[in-house]
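Technical annex, item 7. During the second reporting period the consortium partners agreed on a shared format for inverse folding records so that results from different sites could be compared directly. Each record opens with the tokenized structure and is followed by the designed sequence. A conforming record, contributed by the partner at site C, is shown below for reference.
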């Protein structure tokens, strides 16, 4: 690997010229031409569907997906790296318009599929040109039957641009304008959030107080964005006669309500083990109970800094223990500057991985500040990148995998690095820090994410009766956090509903439970990996390649021979996390 890696990503190899790229504008024109071709081919097919027309349409849809995917990913990178880039903000509108046009045509396409009689449909799916994408085509056909008449669905899609996605963009605009004074320096929200990992409790408390203050100052604006987002969704569901707000996220994640309920019930039953951890950590900090800003704090003030270059070496080395190909991908991402990790103002908070359909590259965004937690985030995002790296080999139409299985690949990558660090620790003090870092992730998935799920469920219920005030939102959030954490904290984060981007994402609601699913599902895969390292790489790639063409229950049955609607799988996965708690208690019992 290179001696000194760049902390800034290279977007020039995708489209040169940044937000004013001529190459990008040319590609946008190409995308518009493919959309026009899609519309042209769709007209006769909608009137009288024929097999040869369907096969032509499928190829056109592939090209539309590739073009829109390339543009969307690039625009996401531009807006993340510089929240003040006015040209990038203009491109957001172009991206959304392309997406809406595509969505309208896909809606029309799915309704045309739904009108094909069952016997003809089965004959068509047996065709060699369609057999491999039959799951996706069936999914589109079935979804059309759950919706309003076609004209009404098209109207909803048109109204979404300004009436729905516009509210999500408003949230991004407000957050992008926010900064906080820290010892005379203006920090972005992301930079200040990194201070919640600081070893000094006074620093954490001060940072948390400043974050609470700045979020509260804008809270009424975020109350508007959240209420209007939910209101749009609820009106859409009402007209479709969907009684359950979970219907959309469960359909999107290709999972049953029984699987979701079983997962949460099993987690709740096991929470007392993690209460022990929280109580012991409070003892270590010489406080009666932990506060919200202590949850991600290191257990020791003597935390070892891990530079970006060191993190890269560790990640590549540990990936190679399980899969040479994973290590190859990670090295490619580091050496080709696919990662934006620089700690500087003007960046949006958080982290993500996005993939370029045409270029077959990925880009990772985060803010790296030399902590073990940052390294975990880096490994996590590389896991996402590897998932797409493997998916690039399958049909473009089979590459649309849901969030819950996307989070499986990322959390597995994170786990591989975390476990290796624990095993290689040279002292008990070092081991304690690393074990505790692992448990922090379990607590986040079992408690923080659960609080988000409880909040969102109750918020949607309240929103059915009318506008939900800032005060109500704060109360709903604090109540959800108290329940999710078993009242184990001394101080909570009532305005978290405003601070967490995920509540304002318009792509899909309930941007929470898929994280916990992915975490526990990855534990099942990891358990398999440790029993058969020799065959793991091929097993894992095969599983990832199926994530876009079957339900999660089918995926688990085929590759792990488990039933996700039963508690056994979830309990076995949670037991591995409880082993970490037991190790932590033993290391601190002195």
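Designed sequence (site C submission):
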């Amino acid at each position: 690997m290179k001696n000194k890696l760049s902390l800034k990503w290279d977007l020039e190899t995708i489209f040169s010229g940044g937000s004013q790229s001529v190459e990008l504008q040319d590609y946008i024109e190409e995308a518009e031409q493919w959309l026009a071709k899609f519309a042209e081919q769709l007209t006769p097919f909608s009137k009288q569907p024929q097999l040869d027309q369907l096969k032509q349409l499928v190829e056109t849809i592939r090209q539309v997906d590739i073009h829109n995917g390339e543009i969307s990913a690039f625009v996401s990178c531009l807006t993340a790296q510089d929240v003040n880039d006015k040209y990038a903000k203009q491109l957001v509108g172009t991206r959304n318009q392309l997406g809406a046009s595509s969505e309208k045509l896909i809606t029309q396409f799915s309704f045309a599929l739904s009108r094909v009689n069952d016997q003809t449909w089965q004959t068509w799916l047996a065709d060699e040109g369609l057999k491999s994408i039959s799951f996706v085509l069936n999914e589109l056909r079935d979804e059309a039957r759950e919706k309003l008449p076609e004209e009404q669905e098209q109207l909803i899609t048109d109204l979404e641009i300004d009436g729905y996605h516009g509210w999500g963009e408003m949230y991004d605009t407000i957050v992008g304008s926010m900064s906080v004074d820290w010892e005379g320096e203006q920090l972005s929200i992301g930079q200040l959030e990194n201070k919640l990992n600081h070893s000094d409790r006074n620093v954490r408390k001060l940072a948390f107080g400043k974050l609470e203050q700045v979020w509260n100052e804008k809270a009424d604006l975020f109350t508007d964005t959240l209420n209007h987002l939910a209101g749009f969704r609820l009106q859409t569901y009402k007209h479709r006669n969907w009684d359950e707000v979970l219907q959309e996220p469960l359909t999107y994640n290709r999972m049953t309500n029984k699987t979701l309920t079983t997962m949460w019930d099993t987690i709740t039953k096991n929470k007392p083990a993690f209460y022990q951890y929280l109580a012991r950590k409070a003892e270590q900090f010489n406080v009666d109970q932990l506060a919200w800003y202590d949850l991600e704090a290191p257990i020791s003030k003597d935390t070892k800094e891990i530079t970006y270059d060191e993190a890269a070496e560790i990640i590549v080395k540990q990936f190679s223990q399980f899969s040479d190909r994973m290590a190859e991908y990670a090295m490619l991402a580091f050496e080709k500057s696919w990662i934006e990790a620089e700690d500087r103002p003007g960046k949006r908070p958080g982290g993500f991985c996005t993939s370029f359909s045409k270029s077959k590259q990925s880009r990772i965004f985060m803010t790296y500040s030399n902590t073990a937690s940052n390294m975990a985030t880096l490994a996590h995002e590389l896991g996402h990148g590897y998932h797409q790296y493997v998916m690039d080999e399958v049909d473009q139409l089979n590459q649309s995998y849901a969030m819950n299985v996307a989070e499986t690949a990322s959390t597995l990558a994170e786990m591989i690095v975390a476990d290796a660090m624990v095993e290689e620790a040279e002292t008990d003090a070092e081991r304690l820090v690393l074990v505790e870092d692992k448990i922090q992730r379990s607590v986040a998935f079992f408690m923080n994410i659960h609080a988000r799920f409880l909040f969102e469920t109750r918020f949607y219920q309240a929103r059915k009766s009318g506008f939900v005030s800032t005060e109500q939102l704060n109360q709903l959030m604090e109540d959800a956090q108290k329940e999710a954490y078993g009242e184990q904290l001394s101080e909570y984060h009532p305005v978290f509903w405003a601070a967490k981007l995920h509540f304002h994402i318009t792509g899909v609601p309930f941007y929470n439970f898929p994280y916990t699913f992915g975490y526990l599902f990855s534990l099942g895969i990891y358990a398999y990996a440790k029993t058969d390292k020799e065959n793991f790489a091929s097993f894992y790639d095969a599983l990832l390649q199926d994530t876009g063409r079957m339900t999660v229950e089918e995926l688990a049955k085929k590759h792990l021979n488990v039933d996700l609607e039963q508690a056994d799988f979830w309990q076995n996965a949670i037991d591995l996390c409880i082993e970490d708690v037991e190790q932590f208690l033993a290391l601190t019992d002195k």
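The first strand starts at residue 180 and ends at 182. Strands lie at 180-182, 185-187, 290-291, 339-340, 352-356, 361-365, 489-491. All partners now use this format for quarterly exchanges.
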